[in-house]
Amino acid sequence: MKPSSSLSNDQKLKICHHKAANPSIKQSALANWAMQEFKLSKVPTQGTISNILAKRQQYESMDSTELTSKRQRAVKHPELDNVLANWVLQCQARRVALSGDLIKEKARQFARQLELGERTPEFSNGLLAKFNIHHGFKAQKSYGESGSANLDAIDRNMPTIKEKLQSYSLQDIYNMDETGLFYRMAPDRTIARRQIEGSKKDKTRLTFVFAANADGSHKMEPLIIGHAQRPRAFNRKSGEQLGFYYRSNAIAWMTGLIFREWLQKMDQQMQDANRKVLLLLDNAPSHVVRDLPLTNVQVFLFPANTTSKIQPMDVGIIAAFKRQYRRFQLQDAIDRDEQQKADIYKVDQLIAMKWAKAAWNDISSKTIANCFKHTGLFERETQKNEVGLEEQDIENELKDAINQLPISRPMSVHELINPEEEQQVAHEEISDEDLIKLSLSQDQEEEEDGEVMDENPPISTKEKLNVLHSCISFLDLSNPNHVIAHKVLKNIQFEIRTIEKKQTTLDRYFCKEY
């Protein structure tokens, strides 16, 4: 029999069971086991194995016909399935009791809004059962009313919360939160107000999802949510191909489905690392954990209306990220102003994402640990408070940058890094109208803000090397910081020359006369 290169759903389920029976097995070893066990023509990639493990619940819910198939049965109406699932998750977040009849009636309503017409399915109990299985929803029941907690309630519950945290080491306690970012926002009150108004339609807003542990030793890869799957700046590539964990929907918001994907991915990472961790979360409408088969991540939800005081991300980590991001943005604006560009705050989404990734990486473990400590949740020491000067230096740099820019009504640094609207778009409940919007396909390439970015002319290798040579000549090697910069610039010079030499060799090879 000729070796196959694809896996049936039954074989994928067996891979999940083999992983469950051997928790410490690495994904590379699991891939080799699968190739030998199922006589595959090649070893499955790490990404394939990771995706299979994340979908274990779906494979376990399949019947015998679906298991023998090599493809998962496609949902007939993906847009309806998507909007209805996100609506159910929001109801669960509010602890609304949902009956099967209510879900079916809501499905009919969404079908009319989506204008499915003759394609409208018959909303039978069987279809409802398949919908519940597909998303891992169990029988609906009431959990009582959701009450808003206040600081007095936190004070009463603080001993219980601290006791819960004591069961985990600092490196195994994580916090996750989302924030919006108007990545082109000017530090001018008048201009910024115009940019922020109508923020749900503004394609220069992204949502970022950050997570880190209490001792600052692990910052998870940020999830970025944009409006289009392939914005113009991506040059027809996917976010993954460009090195980002990226998802999209029409309003660039976190949804219940995206959150569940993120949480299952975290759980899989902790399984692979053989770690049991605690994840601290706020009560955002998308943070619905119910029915998820988590094995290595235990979730603790903060009481409502308290996270600004006791959630580490809210206490200062997200603010530290925004300081770093605005640092990149304002320095670029100064450069563009000196070049007499018309719109000095105009950057495309890909550049903004690169700045954001660098900004997240630049946040020190001391800053993160200090923010966890500042919540008052920890009896133990995280790290000594040694980051005040570091943050103050960045704030002073931002003040100087704002003063150098042509601004009529300059913002304060606090206004620049804490616009209220950026938090609102990350934590508000999504309306039915917006649920419909985000369910629509975002596969097409999309321009940002309806404009084509102005492109700089390509720089030749000779010009690059001349600029680097000038920078290196400027450095004072008696300054330790300049020594570091000297080494970095020399390495860049070497890389450019190496790439040029390889390209020249290839050009000569293909230009040979045969």
* Classification by helices and strands: alpha/beta
- pLDDT averaged over residues: 79
Strand content: 5-15%
Report Rg: 26 Å
Number of strands: 8
Sequence of strands across the biggest β-sheet:
5-3-2-1-6-7
Could you give the order of the helices and strands? HHHHHHHHHEHEEEEHEEHHHHHHHHEHH
- Major sheet summary line: 6 strands, mixed
Shape: globular
In whole angstroms, the N-to-C terminal distance is 43 Å
Question: Which residues sit in consecutive blocks of at least 5 with pLDDT less than 50?
Answer: 140-150, 383-387, 447-452
Share in helix: 40-55%
Alpha plus pi helix count: 21
Explain how this protein is built.
This protein is α/β, with parallel strands linked by helices and 514 residues long. It has 21 helices and eight strands. The chain has helices at residues 9-21, 27-37, 46-54, 56-60, 64-68, 78-93, 100-113, 125-135, 151-166, 189-196, 256-272, 307-310, 312-338, 349-362, 365-374, 388-404, 413-417, 420-427, 432-439, 461-474, 480-510, and strands at residues 173-182, 205-213, 223-226, 230-231, 245-248, 277-281, 297-301, 445-446. The strands form two sheets. The protein has a six-stranded mixed beta sheet, sandwiched between helices. The model is unreliable at 140-150, 383-387 and 447-452 (pLDDT under 50).
